[in-house]
Structure formats: structure tokens, C-alpha cells
Amino acid sequence: MDLRNGLRPLGSTPAEFEQDLLSNLYYRRGTTVESASAQDAYETLALTVRDRLAARRARTAAAHYETNPRWVYYLSAEYLLGPQLEQNLLYSGTTDLAPAALKALGFSPEEVEALDVEPGLGNGGLGRLAACLLDSLATLDIPAVGYGIRYDLGIFKQDFENGEQVEKPDDWTFQGDPWEFPAPDDWQTVGFYGYVGPEGWVPGEIVHGEPSHLLVPGYGTETVNIVRLWRARAAQASFDLRRFSAGQYAEAVQEAVKAENISKVLYPDDSTEMGRELRLKQQYFLVSCSLRDIIRRFRFRNSDWSDFPVKTVIQLNDTHPTLAIPELMRLLVDEEKLDWEQAWSLVRQTFAYTCHTLLPEALETWPVDMLGRLLPRHLEIIYRINAELLDEVRATFPDDLSRVRNLSLIQEEPQRRVRMANLAVTGTFKVNGVAELHSQLLTSTTFADFAALWPDKFTNVTNGVTPRRFVRLANPGLSALITEGLGSEDWLRDLSLLSGLAPLADDASFRARWRSEKRHAKSALGLGDPGAMLDVMIKRFHEYKRQQLKILHVITLYQRLQSAPGRFGVPRTVLFGGKAAPAYYAAKSIIKTINAVAAAVAADPKSSGLLRVVFPANYNVTLAEKIIPAADLSEQISMAGKEASGTGNMKLALNGALTIGTLDGANVEIRDRVGADNFFLFGLDAPAALSLRSGDYQPRSYYEADDELRAALDALSNGVFGGAGQEVAQSLLGRDEYLTLADYRSYIDKQDEVAAVWQNQERWTRMSILNTAGSGFFSSDRTVSDYLERIWRASPVRP
Ligand code: NBY
């Protein structure tokens, strides 16, 4: 099989590109220049670009086949891929060819690009991290496949009605998806329910998984990997013709609808009670389809099971795909007839697990009853794994009942539930946290007993972000300036080179150009006065992230405008962006309060030219790419010890925003690298927060002791910002779970320092350049290199 010589090369001249575009318009889109719509132009351009990547894909696949390499498989319930067109133009080297070719069809690049819908197949940081890692894996030429679910509906579209978040379905494939390759012949069968008889598991329901894939090109290399997404389909014969003929139309398709519901919608995190069993079905569906596909691929070039962990490493992106552990046991023991010990040894050499949280309530558990009904054989397997685990615990720590209780895969009270994190730690060879502090806290708190049992299993891999999407594509102006400053574009593949910008921070003309790029980005964003400081807080809404602290700051600024204008500071546009889980009532109250404060500020002539609050709806990757280049100040103000890492903090620092933040997650490492002088630190650190939280914390004492805090909370309590604002105040004056009031004064004073520094624009710009220069570490290329060295141990294969 020689794919290398068999392919007609696709041209790279403007004429050849235009020719290909036209022929795709005629032969694949089936229309003509005269009647082409903007959508036709978009889809045709996408196909023309995709073809170029597909040719590279074929060469990559051929090189992989020849090499029979070790593979990295990334299993994730979420991928927040972001818009594809601009990226694929850049990676395929056709960015400059597209505009002229489109013009031949009579369309502008802008109107065509606006039709590129982002696949929102994730919630937040976890899903976006998965996308950044895939980008870097391809860029580093690592043989890798990402596996996920092709949700019909991605993360909901956020709208505001009367300032309140309302959720609308995200029908992202309404017009089809030109980037996708269906691969229906690789379909898999997945069973659910049923019973375990003498012959093994007999499922009571069968569903098909149909894959399609998107291309994942590397930057500056020929490698093109794939992300394979599964869609649920009814097994054949689920259409009931007899009922249909009898006019029972709904009943006739009932089975098909039930099956297809499995990949119908991405769950907007875990705050919703709705459809728990369906969510568990999704997880098993992903895992079962993907493992069979991985085994199918293993068998192309291998036959001996003992080679499986040599050729395969499977990374579990949080606990959502943890059922892969008992599923692989089932496949090996029940279907491949390996003995239990050998199977367990293979499994434990194959999987690794990334934990993304520190919130105890975010550790996933499933009721034993539900799991046993849906997956009876898997529950048996989990019980046996647990029995052996607990034997090991008793042997290592005799007479230590509390360890047995903590480490057990089964939680007993108040209801028997399977602890997915414990299963993930037990069935893998490495467990990593996502920032230094997070990994330390995992081994000292959440997984302390596991770390005592298996100390070598735990490691850290600090998150990173792709500089291609979040600097080069999002911020072309700044990218060009960086390239000029460094004398080459090599920084896009080796971000540590950014340190070469540091000396330029002392160059006044470079600073002036740096400032002007920021202003350009702000003007392009079109929200607020480009002369004002753009102060941004963009992330999911969660009480631990403390958007409520930011809103207290805004209220304080607003009140100073009324009563102490001399203390106000500098003109600011405060920008919020983010979604709340639909069932997370407290987070939705914070959203509504922000919109009420924004309206009050806007209605008051005293704020004019000084303070503005903007909250564009439906924050997503597309919007992030517009906001991040424009930001001056990055708000990373979570309660210390709660944010596992953060990745928005990295994107903002890379684009020259200064951070105001607590010593939480990756903020700690950002501050180390950009320098403490170039970072606005405030608040309790993790040990202090923990000890205050576990002692007798009295939020009211802060309220009583601080006039500005009291005034801000009183305004909220008195309903100045509506009923939602009253709820926010009540929660802060009641329990204040995340120590907002304890950190208020330190935060406000630090914000006053921020304003003072802003008044010295030369100093600010210097700090901004040093933030970019110090952020080279936060490339996802470095993250992938760390995974390779500490966990994956796979080598590059170049096509
Ligand atoms: O993962 C985030 C962390 O909060 C952030 O600190 C970190 O930088 C990022 C990448 O490591 N976690 C996150 O985004 N989590 C989710 O989106 C999520 C999704 C689903 C569920 C829970 C959390 N769930 O329960 O299904």
C-alpha cells in the first residue's frame, strides 16, 4: 500500500486553488457560480481547504501504518474545538489564497467566515484543554487519536431576558458540517441493561455507534491527526413498520428516538439532576465504541495481547471515561478469554488519568443500583477490582479501617455509590493534576490515602494553551510585532523563545507599538472606549471563581463615583463573559445581578467616560478569540485552593494582559514566570483559606468592619440591583462559602494599585511585554512534552 505516490498533489498557486474551488462548487456542492449562496461559498471553501489537509492525512496514516508506533489515545467526553476555517486555512498554508478565490465567486472573506459555526462540544476549560492538547500532539508529530461524542446539540446558546440567562439549543450542524468525514463502515455495537448468565453478559438493549472524524492538523509539519466522534444510531429494525402503517407514528420511531438520544446533547456540567442515567449511558457509549476501535486499530499490525500496553496508552480526561477500565477488563476476560490477572496487569499498564478538580462535590459517583441495572457485568468487575484493592490496603495498612473506608471504590453512606475517581486511580499507572499547586493538593488532600499506598503513581502536568489559535490567529497584529521583535516565526513552534522579548520592554518605540496593537484589538472588539482599561473576567460562572467578588468591586467603584469621585481611579470597561449551568441557581443570580449593575451604571451620567460594564451573551471560543487580545487586566480571583489550574489566565497573560489574582491554580506558576513585580497578587493563600474555612468564619465581621464593603452589600440587600442582587447579598452575609468578604479589602486595595500603575502607561506597557515574554512555558506543546516524558512515552513519527 503506497499512499505516498498514489496521490495527485493539490496545487498551491492562486490559479490552482481557484480552479479547485470552482470544481468543488460544481462537482461536490452541485451548484454554479451564478446561483451560489454565501453558504455554498463557505462549504466549498471548506472542502477545498480540507482536501489539502486530507492529502496530508493520507500521508500521515501511511507513515503510521508503516511504523506501527506507540499510540496516544485521548478519551474525553468534551472537545471545545473552536471555529475551524481560519485555523485550517493557516495550517494548510492557504490563508492568502482564499480571499481572491472567494472573490471569483462574488463573496467577501468576512461574510464567508461568519458562517463558520464552532462545534461547541464542551463546557469550559476541560473541553478546551482537550482541543489544545490535540493541536500540540499533531504539531509534535505524535501518533494520536482523540475520541469523543458527536453531540447533536453542543453547549447551549446563552441569551439574556430581563438580565436573566436563558438557554437555547445549539443546533450546530443545522447546515451540515463540511469539516467532518463520516466513517459509517467503522460502526460499533454497544449493549446496555440485560443480565449476566452462565455465558456472560446478555444485554437487553443494543445501540450502534457511528463514527465520523475531524482532521487535526499540526502547525509547521505535515502531520494531520484525527478526532473521532461517535454518534448513536438505532440498531436495525427499530423502525416499526406495522405500527407506522397503523398510524402510530410516534410509537413507530420510539425505539430509534430512544437510541439516538444518547448522543443528543452535551450535559452542561453536573449541576443538573436531569437525565442522570442518560449521562451514564453516554459515558459507556463513548468508552465502549472507542475501546473497540482502539483494539481494531491495534490488530492491523499486532497480534499478541502482551504488546497492547507497549503500543497503546489511553489518557482519561477526568473521570467521565472511567468505565473504560471495567470495559477493557470485560473485553479481555469475557471476549478474549484472558485470565483475570493478565488482563488486570494489561489494563493497569494502559490507562492514565487526569484529574481536573479539587471540589469534593465534583468527584463523580454513580448509584450502585443504577450502574448495576445499566451495566450488570461491569458492576461485578468493579466489585472484584474493589475486593483486590481492599486486600492490598489491609495488607499495607493492617487494622486501618478508615483507610479501607476512604479507598474503597464503593461509598456506603448515605447511599451505595461507585466512586469513579477511586476507580480511575486504581486502574491506571499514572494520575496527574493540572498545575503544581493542584497536584500537591491532590496528594495531600483528595487522594492522600492513595498517595500513601502508591506514591509513585502521582505526578503533575501543568496545563498549557496553543499559541497558534490564541496568539497567531486571535491576535495577528501582536503576532507580527512579536515575530519582528524576535526576528523569526519560530516562537510559534517553540514558545520559550518569547523570553527574547524581555529586553524590548526597555525600548520606548517597541512599547509604543505594543500599546498601539492593544488599542487596535480594543477598537476591533468595539465594546467601550479603547482608551479605558479593559478589565475582563471570562470563564464559566461558579461561586468558587468569585464573579461575586468582581461585582462587589464594580459596585464600590460606582459608589465612589457618587460619593468620593477622588477615589475612583481610572476609566475602566469591565467585561464579563461566561455561562452558568442551567440548574445552578446561585450562579444564575450572579449573572442577573451583573446585568442589573451594568444597567444602573449605564443609566447614570456620572459614569460616563469613566465606568462601563459589558456582558456580551454566549461567551464561547469564537468570542474568546476577540476578547483576549483586547484585554488589559485579567481577573483570576478564585478562592485559593479551588481552581485546579485555569487556562484563560494563560491565554490572557500571553496576549499581554496583566493578572490580578490569588495564589491559586496556575496563577502561582504564572507569577513565578512573569515576575512578582508584574503580577497583582492579593488575598488569602490556600493554607490560610483552608484554615479560615475550617474555623469559625464570620462574614458579618468583615461587613461590619469595612465601610465600603458595607455600602456595597447594603445596596445589594436593599434591592438596588434587584431581587437577584438581594439573593447574592444574602448568600455572602450568610455562609459565604468561598470567603469573598474575607478577601474583599485586599482585592479592592490591589485594584487601586492597578489603577495607579495604569496611569503610568509606559510602566504598564513594560509589564505587559514582560507578561508575554514570561509566558512561554504555558504552551500546550510544553504540556504535551511533559505528558510524553512523564506518562505517555511515545515518539514522533513524521510523514
Ligand atoms: O479544567 C477545569 C478546571 O476548573 C480548570 O481549573 C482547569 O484549568 C481546566 C483544565 O484542566 N474543569 C472543567 O472545565 N470542568 C468541566 O468543564 C466539567 C465538565 C463536566 C463535569 C464537571 C466539570 N461533569 O461533572 O460532568
UniProtKB/TrEMBL annotation:
It catalyses: [(1->4)-alpha-D-glucosyl](n) + phosphate = [(1->4)-alpha-D-glucosyl](n-1) + alpha-D-glucose 1-phosphate. Keywords: Carbohydrate metabolism, Glycosyltransferase, Pyridoxal phosphate, Transferase. GO terms for molecular function: 1,4-alpha-oligoglucan phosphorylase activity. Its cofactor is pyridoxal 5'-phosphate. It comes from the Bacteria. InterPro entries: Glycg_phsphrylas, Glyco_trans_35, Pyridoxal_P_attach_site. Gene3D superfamilies: Glycogen Phosphorylase B. Its EC number is 2.4.1.1. Allosteric enzyme that catalyzes the rate-limiting step in glycogen catabolism, the phosphorolytic cleavage of glycogen to produce glucose-1-phosphate, and plays a central role in maintaining cellular and organismal glucose homeostasis. Belongs to the glycogen phosphorylase family. PANTHER family: GLYCOGEN PHOSPHORYLASE (PTHR11468), MALTODEXTRIN PHOSPHORYLASE (PTHR11468:SF25). This is Alpha-1,4 glucan phosphorylase. It comes from Paractinoplanes bogorensis. The lineage of its organism: Bacteria, Bacillati, Actinomycetota, Actinomycetes, Micromonosporales. The gene is glgP.
